[in-house]
Amino acid sequence: MYVLGINAYHGDVSAVLLKDGQLLTALEEERFRRIKHWAGFPTLSIQRCLEMAGISGAELSHVAISRDPKAHLLRKALFTLTKRPNLSIVRDRLRNAGQLRDVRTPLAAALGMPVGKLPKLHYVEHHPSHLASAFFVSPFEDAAICAIDGFGDFVSTSMAVGRGNHFDVLARVYFPHSLGMLYTAVTQYLGFMGYGDEFKIMGLAPYGEPEFVPELRKLVKLKAGGTFELSLEYFRHWNEGVDMEWSDGYPTLGRVYSPALEKLLGPPRNKDAPLTKRDENLARSLQAVYEECAFHVLNGLWERTKNPRLCMAGGCAMNSVANGKVRANTPFEELYIQPASGDNGTALGAAFYVWNQTLRKPRSFVMEHGYWGTSYPASDVGPLVDARRDAEWRYDRVTFDDEAGVCRRAAELIAEGNVVGWFQGRMEWGARALGNRSILADPRRADMRDLINTKIKFREKFRPFAPSILEEALDEYFVDAAPDPFMQQVYAVRPDKRAVLPAITHADGSGRLQTVSERTNPRYYRLIQEFSRISGVPVVLNTSFNENEPIVDTPEQALDCFLRTRMDAIVVGNTVIRRQKSSESVSLP
Asked: What are the contacts of 489-495 at 24+ separation with CB within 8 A?
């Protein structure tokens, strides 16, 4: 039995396909449209899911959509009557709900079938989709579950407990109160207005001091049982209306903070102004206040469940700094966060919600890795390189017969100080590059972070890079860290290792790590192993294979990114291509 799950008419739209409860594919529309956070309908993702499975739309039994426009109608009506928000809020929400109700037409087109022949449709509420995406693919038979985000179907925070193939929601926080909105408001105040820019503030925070914690605490009130309320005078999303665009392109969100925040903190930063120490301190203060609130929610969930295992989802579960502190700040002992915990992951959750909770099928799948996307095993970029005419550079290439040879050569190039594009196997699911669509470098080079940020990624200099480390070496390099193959948690680098790993050690001595095991990614594991043999360090610097765009999908996109940046080499499958000055005569050995 095939179940298709989709996230539609929201940010980060996506599609996943299950067969008899096993995940076959998980795809994000942005990778095919080449526009970050693509919003609208996931037509191409749906079509690629079917193509990769070798089936037609007629073979689907169920389609799960991770939104329910009918959810919490009474609360929505009561809010409108009592708060009397601007009519633009009501109009925008009705328009978005209308798109969801009319989903049958674009769905039928994507599946290549008449509307009247569509499989059974299930509208799964946004937050239960988040909860399902965390629990039903986890290794836990029972667990506490928490979803924290901006909003979805009028809810911002959910607490639940799961057992077997079922979970029960224990508590919710409703619109307009939201920790995601708290983080977004201060992110925008600091001049970062792009959709998803909150992660930049998380990266900026370690440079600052928590100077403004007393002021930012005024924005939120913690309540009994792990709940909270925003101090609404500092926000405008609930009464004035905020311009949003969720259709066919990059999603946008207008300013959510009110003039009261400017009165509290002073004039906001202009997006083009240089970052100051005050901006860094505000970022650090926001992160500190968010962590206080998040741990308040999680400790409230613990009191409700007394379960030592925790599954997390929602956009706020992408806050890897807070995630790494969960075990130290709550009684929870084990933590699971799948790699697409944001809105992209609701497609996964909706599909498994239908399979496990609606159809009552037993659980049989655990997500141990994030490699659920496209692959191009037969692709040959050699002719594209040979045809290139470049007065400044030449491109030497060699194809190896086996995995050992290509991993050894890539490790040598990295150890020599080269920046290497690494394109292998199936594309990652989620926002993180996990060793199949990655740019790799030597973490021992103190200048490597600035080099990659300014010459390859063309992004802010304060942005950190992640370490990929052999799983068995974790305790040797990080303090009290837990294995995490999905790069969702930040931990302190051991003090005696910080000078060894300057390129991946952030300003506060931490690193957002990815543990790599031979079981889940043998080729990437072997590469790091080869680098360890050369350098004595079982760690490589890993960042996503892109340049101000979605992570590359095809070998051709990878080659294009390599050619237009200053990467030194690229490895596609077993082929190594190295950039050399045209005047030089050195070739690849």
From this structure: 489/320, 489/323, 489/324, 489/335, 489/337, 489/513, 490/320, 490/321, 490/323, 490/324, 491/324
240 lies in the same domain as 97: no
Do 480 and 440 belong together in one domain?
A: yes
One-letter amino acid of 204: L
Do residues 424 and 556 share a domain?
yes
**Long-range contact pairs involving 563-566 (C-beta distance under 8 Å, separation at least 24):** 563/388, 565/455, 565/456, 565/458, 566/419, 566/455, 566/456
State residue 586's pLDDT score.
Answer: 47
Report yes or no: 424 and 438 within 8 Å, Cβ to Cβ. Answer: no
Residue type, 123: Y
Give residue 575's pLDDT: 95
pLDDT tens for residues 230-285? 999 999 998 887 877 887 899 999 999 999 999 999 999 999 999 999 999 999 99
Q: Does 232 lie in the same domain as 195?
A: yes
Residue 165 has pLDDT above 80, yes or no: yes
8 A C-beta contact, residue 83 and residue 238: yes
Nearest to 538 by CA among 485, 477, 492, 452: 477
* Other CB atoms within 10 A of residue 404 CB: 11
Cα–Cα distances (Å) from 321 to 204, 326, 334, 339, 463, in that order, read 12, 9, 16, 15, 14
Distance between CA atoms of residues 500 and 493, nearest Å: 10
Q: Average of pLDDT values for 452-468?
A: 90
Number of independent structural domains in the chain: 3
Where is pLDDT greater, at 246 or 355?
355
Question: What's the number of CA atoms in the CB half-sphere (13 Å) around residue 426?
Answer: 17
Pair of tokens at residue 412 = 């040598």
- Dihedral of alpha carbons 266, 270, 274, 279, sign: positive
The dihedrals phi and psi of 575, each to the nearest 5 degrees, come to: -100, 130
Residue 27 CA to residue 49 CA, distance in Å, equals: 7
Domain with 113, as residue range(s), is 2-136+341-358
* Domain end call among 325, 358, 391: 358
Q: Are residues 425 and 451 in the same domain?
A: yes
Looking at the structure, tell me whether residues 20 and 75 fall in a common domain: yes
Answer whether residue 142 is part of any domain: no
In a domain, 412, yes or no: yes
Same domain, 395 and 493: yes
Domain identity same for 206 and 128: no
Kindly report the CA angle at 514 between 159 and 539, in degrees rounded to 5?
160
What is the predicted pLDDT for the residue at 93?
Answer: 56
For residue 120, what is the domain's CATH number?
A: 3.30.420.40
Write the single-letter amino acid at 172.
Answer: R
Per-residue DSSP letter, 312: E
Kind of pairing between the strands at 2-7 and 60-65: parallel
Q: How many Å apart are CA 17 and CA 60, to the nearest integer?
A: 9
Whether 284 maps to a domain, the answer reads: yes
Domain closes at, from 275, 303, 336: 336
Q: Is residue 374 situated within a structural domain?
A: no
Count CB atoms within 10 A of the CB of residue 193.
Answer: 15
Contact yes or no for 261/212 (Cβ under 8 A) = no
**Token pair recorded at residue 83:** 């708060």
